[in-house]
Amino acid sequence: MKSKAALIRQLKFAFSSCSTTNGFAIPIAVGLGLVMILVGITMLARSQGDNINAIQQQGTDDSLYVTEAGVTQVLAFIKNNTPIAAYNLTNWQSSATTYKGICSNNISNIVTGANALASWSNINGNSTKQFQLQNYTYQPDNPANGSHSIPGTGTLEVLGRTGVTTANPSGASRQHLKVTIRVKPPLPPTFPVPGLWVGQSASSGTNNEANILGACGVSLANMSTPTPPWQILTGVTMDFPSLPPYPAVDTTLTSAQTPPPGHIPSSQNLTSTVTGTYPRTTGTPDRANSNGIYEYIVASGVTFSSPTITSGQKVVFYIDLGSNQVSGTYPRSGDVPDYNGVYNYLVNSINSVTITAPQKVNFYLTGNGGEVNHDCIPSTIFTCSLDFKIYGYGTTSSIPQFALNGNKCVHNAFILAPTYSLDHQGGGNCGYTVLGDYIGVAWVGTWTGTGGSNHTGMRQDPSLTWANIMGAGVTLDTLPPTITPATSWQQVAY
Questions:
Q1: CA-CA distance, 158 to 131, in Å (whole number)?
Q2: Which one of 167, 294, 341, 458 is least enclosed by Cβ atoms within 10 Å?
Q3: What residues have CB less than 8 Å from 45, skipping those under 6 apart?
Q4: Could you give the CA distance from residue 91 to residue 118 in angstroms, rounded to a whole number?
Q5: 0.85 surpassed by pTM
């Protein structure tokens, strides 16, 4: 087909060559005019198409901007409530959901905020530009550690639309973005380590030399200001870290399952003398938990006979001390520590125990606490509290206690016992007039303690840092996780 320019040239040639022919010029002029009209119509149509494309592109750009603005608002909501990053949108929208690190009185705010994001919301008050959080899902890297375990990946999907009117409520242009973020373990807190952390109430307190913190806004109005440089910590609403799972035999485990931490297969409940090589590989092979640790319960009264631990394997023996009150010196001769050199005991209740420094001991306590004598080396210092940790699992049906009346003391211990009452009102002393009657760290439910007039009630280990605590195996899982910037943005067909 000839081009328009060629046709015009041909017509001009025909017109000039036939100009002497009378009456032929008029049809030629009419034809030339028609060609010019066709050219003009074509150019106009093309211009209108370009305009339409430009308008459509502008609409696409606007809806993409609106969707990205919605993503920004959703990420801000997550950042302000970072523990929710390890949960799904459906969890956010439920008042029944509890989160590690979020106080119960803030749950209703999360539900309200999540429901608002899941509805169409205006951008900057403009009702023609709207976004909606369509979904948020979380996938842990290691599901065996729990559906909300960290680290993991969160995926949010946000819809955006522009040109929303009464006549066109769905909008003229729409976008769908899928964005992923990484949810990583928390960083150490920025506030000082509390020597006394109270989860329920603090009825009295003087002569304390420790940082004092009330979990989730617990009132500390009855606590006197501690001796400087110690202080009552304000502006912190973080809840207690969780207790480690209490070690117990789990008869529901199948042979195909990888045990979660603290869930011990029946075959690893040791009821006769512990000897030979561990982990065992013959018969029914022993199974490591989801963290790669082989856990065993050593039944009450069972002794060790020089067992061998295979090089490179992580083995923990939880030694059951039975149902009686515990007294005496720990660790006992012949007991076997775990791969970190810690002796682990399952304890019903404590009467009076002595911990031999510099050994490391954990007590998993289900009943009442009692007196603890744990002298650092040399005995004139008190910087070994993390060497002896007591985890308290007593139920709230009958509030378990550490009752340190009279001349009883707790020296150099780290206690995490969210349901326990630490009652320290003794007027006497236990021979530590200078150092104090309670030394170490107590993160407990309630505190009642004044201390005698000539000695301290609560004295904090001054050497403690958050890095020390985390390095000693205390999992600060109520700290907010670290949220990375978006790792991917993907446009999805809408």
A1: 7
A2: 167
A3: none
A4: 13
A5: no
